Amino acid sequence: MKTLTNKEIAESLGIIRDNDILPSLITENLEKRLSQIELTDDDFKRIITEVIKEYRKSLVEPGEAVGNVAAQSIGEPGTQMTLKTFHYAGVAELNVTLGLPRLIEIVDARKNPSTPMMTVYFEDEYATDPVKARDVAQRIELTKIDNIAQSIEFDLLNRAIIVKLSRDLMEDKGITPQLVVSKLKVLRKVDLDLDEKRGVIHIKMQSEDFGDYPKLLERVRSTPIKGIKGIKRVMIRKEATQSGKEEYILYTEGTNLSQVIKVSGVDSTRTISNNIHEIAETFGIEAARNALIHEAQEVLGEQGLDVDVRHIMLVSDLMTRTGEIRQIGRHGISGEKESVLARAAFEVTVKHLLDASVSGEEDLLNGITENVIVGQTIPLGTGFIDLYMSRGNKEKQS
Prior knowledge:
By secondary structure, the chain is an alpha+beta fold. The protein contains 19 helices and 12 strands.
């Protein structure tokens, strides 16, 4: 029997796609995989028949309670999750919020995660070179004078602030005394004197007012030398990727996605943050939707809970469908329902009922929750449709 060519496979799949039998994503995936093996016409037809059958089995029936099923499928395993907030994976590792606290952060669409962090990937030449990877890390980590000084003291006799620099810390961060002095020049009305041999900087105010020195001392401590605002600490680890090869990956404590992806050597196509709002601002709402799915799967998977991705996708779609990230709660999706009774059933019952009474709102009882409350048939499953039968004329029937 004749073996099909790649062109014939592509043409056959094109006809199937054009007739809306299968989505284009599935047909493209099929074309990629089937072109790698030898197939007869009968083999091809059998494969396509099975794929179409499985695809139709996966479709949702009209009237299916997808929202309830998703809520149950995520909520019930959620009760089995641990309440531990932090995960300590070693002395020098970063703290990461996991378990139920993190899942609550995701569905509540919190603006600021309790432990903001980023996973920064390097471009090819940097990913395998430890020296280049370290150089990028030094350019990303925010280093203040407080991080490289042995001591910062106020000399009362000479009315000066004395900064004693640590040579080891400066070498580790890739900083020179001259760079420190150049950054301190942003301080106004001060005289700077560098003793390079001793690694000491004298900062003297031109003002005679002693009350100004505590403020100056704090400003000196917090003066940034290099790095990106918000990135408190970085950690480089060598890990195996999905492709099997090992590469260096950077983990940060703190986030600043928009600035980090601009750094030379950083792979902006793979670098991610656990701050969903930051992803939406930097890459758009579709990227935020993908991040919601990824973060929820990571949290549930880490706890050993197997939740079908379609339930998580439904929740993510609801949270992002307006173009902005909204929480699942009374200030978000549940609080924006048209039904008064549905809103009242979720939280702050009396407030919703009073507000609706004052404004003269009507409830058309179109949803499930409100019909349960009033004891009517719910629009779900067989209750989703109305069936009308014509009895006709008895004489005509006979």
